[in-house]
Design a protein that fits this description.
This protein has 128 residues and is α+β, with helices and mostly antiparallel strands. The protein has 4 helices and 6 strands; from the N terminus they run E-E-E-H-E-E-H-H-E-H. The chain has a single domain, classed as Transposase IS200-like (Alpha-Beta Plaits). A 4-stranded antiparallel beta sheet has the order 4-5-3-6, with helices on one face. The chain has a two-stranded antiparallel sheet with strand order 1-2. Helix 1 crosses helix 2. The longest helix is centred in the middle third of the chain and has 19 residues.
Length: 128
């Protein structure tokens, strides 16, 4: 695989994180999938992350991003989860009820890999 190398200070880097997190039950219905994809793309752009791949399923969200060396993997996933929550509630006010009852739109855990996640369908089960 050919990587794009970027400059930061005097160094070059190619840092790729695979981030996977899960929505709470029945949250990502079909009408939210497209909205969530757009929100994630916009959030990556605004946060300075280069989105490499995106897969939004009812069971999990898998995003592969290239980030600067100053961005910790946990910060990247926290940024995406929190900003997606804010934007989703803004676009779909009916999600406020879910948020007020459960305290979050997402399950607590997440998975971060610096190598490729070969089977996201099985990987999301590790979070539970």
């Amino acid at each position: 695989m050919m990587y794009n190398y970027y400059s930061h200070g005097y160094g070059k880097y190619a840092i790729h994180y695979h981030l996977l997190w899960c929505p709470k039950e029945k949250l990502v219905e079909k009408y939210l999938v497209q909205a969530l994809k757009e929100i994630i793309m916009e959030t990556c752009h605004k946060s300075g992350y280069e989105m490499l791949t995106l897969d939004v399923q009812p069971q999990f969200i898998h995003v592969s991003v290239s980030v600067q060396p100053t961005v910790a993997p946990a910060d990247a996933v926290r940024t995406l989860k929190s900003l997606c929550t804010i934007r989703l509630i803004h676009l779909h006010p009916e999600l406020k009820n879910h948020y007020s009852v459960y305290g979050s739109l997402w399950k607590k855990g997440y998975l971060i890999s610096t190598g490729k996640i070969s089977n996201p369908e099985l990987a999301w089960q590790q979070i539970e």
